[in-house]
Amino acid sequence: MRISSALFSAMICLSACATSHAQERSKDKAEVSQAALKGKIDYCKTCHGLQGQGFRGSYPMPRLAGQQPEYLVNQLQAFIERRRNNPVMFNVAHVLTPQMEKALAEQFNHLDPKPLGGGPKENLTEGKDIYLKGIPKSDVPPCASCHGDDAKGRDAFPRLAGQLHDYVYKKLTNWDKERGQDKNNPDNSAIMQPIAHNLTDAQIRAVAGYLSTIE
Ligand code: HEC
Ligand code: HEC
Predict the structure, then answer these.
(1) 8 CB near ligand 1 (under 6 Å)
(2) For residue 59, which of 8, 22, 92, 126 sits 20 to 30 Å off, Cα-Cα?
(3) Nearest to residue 70, comparing CAs of 158, 201, 132, 7?
(4) Ligand 1 lined by 19 (C-beta under 6 Å)
(5) Top-confidence residue, 7 or 137
(6) Which pTM value belongs to this model?
(7) Of all protein residues, whose CA lies closest to atom 37 belonging to ligand 1?
(8) Are 187 and 180 contacting, i.e. CB atoms less than 8 angstroms apart?
């Protein structure tokens, strides 16, 4: 019951959000030049890795390669509107036009490097089990039911395959402090909130380790 109602509200929000974004974009028709696009991508890659595979500096920079364009644009918008809390990405994103956001999202979607790696290898079987079957006794639905069996995502459901384990760990443990920060303007982050909340620290480590190995 809980699982199907979560999925149901997910579908409502996803279709409503997609419509309003499409309307916003059609207002502004300015073109993106190839030179401007290349300049931006080179800039993104200084942090997100030369092939968009992610980068581990003093902070884990997430993989953008192969990410779903709709999800990627949603996140840029969330940083700009401070629904998603991150000062670095606010500065990066607030200067982008809607056309540039879309063009960047398409470019990153086409990259397909191997996962960066470096994750823990001990609990891959447990991680895979959580991903495919969920944890019924804790009301955690199978991750695969939304993110796909291959973890490639779809539309507003993000790709998780090959994502950095330490990035995924941080996002799931800090969900309430970083995502859905404008209570008057709820977004898709609400779909993940109870799921992140119901996972234990050890379960998050296991599933994050598993995801970091998927190509
Ligand atoms: C100075 C470093 C830096 C630059 C340059 C940068 N980013 Fe980021 N980006 C980050 C960090 C750090 C995060 C992780 C934020 C977090 O932990 O929530 C991030 C997160 C993101 C996310 C969210 C990913 C997800 O899986 O939810 C997107 C999308 C993104 N960046 C796109 C871009 C794009 C597009 C560019 C180029 C226009 C860019 N970034 C340039 C540092 C950077
Ligand atoms: C009911 C659908 C649903 C299920 C089930 C689900 N997710 Fe999600 N997940 C989402 C949506 C939608 C988002 C994007 C939220 C947003 O746009 O802010 C998301 C985002 C995420 C993110 C953030 C990605 C990033 O790049 O920052 C992670 C990590 C994640 N999910 C992991 C999981 C794991 C692990 C499970 C299983 C334990 C799971 N999800 C189950 C719908 C779901």
Answers:
(1) no
(2) 126
(3) 158
(4) no
(5) 137
(6) 0.91
(7) 44
(8) yes
Q: Residue 192 C-alpha to ligand 2 middle, in angstroms?
A: 5
Q: Which two tokens stand for residue 132?
A: 């495919």
28-58: burial string, b at 16+ Cβ within 10 Å, e else: eeeebeeeebeebbeebbebbbebbbbbeee
What's the rounded mean pLDDT across residues 29-43? 91
Which residues contact residue 72 at a Cβ distance below 8 angstroms, ignoring those fewer than 6 apart? 64, 101, 104, 105, 108, 109
2: its two tokens = 């809980």
Q: Which long-range contacts (CB under 8 A, 24 or more apart) does 110-114 make?
A: 111/51, 111/52, 111/53, 111/64, 111/65, 111/66, 112/65, 112/66, 113/49, 113/51, 113/52, 113/53, 113/65, 114/53, 114/162, 114/215
pLDDT tens for each residue of 120-160? 999 999 999 999 999 999 999 999 999 999 999 999 999 99
- Token pair for 201: 């620290």
Token output for 189: 């982050």
Enumerate domains of the chain plus CATH numbers. 17-211 (1.10.760.10)
Cα angle 39, 97, 113 (rounded to 5 degrees) comes to 50
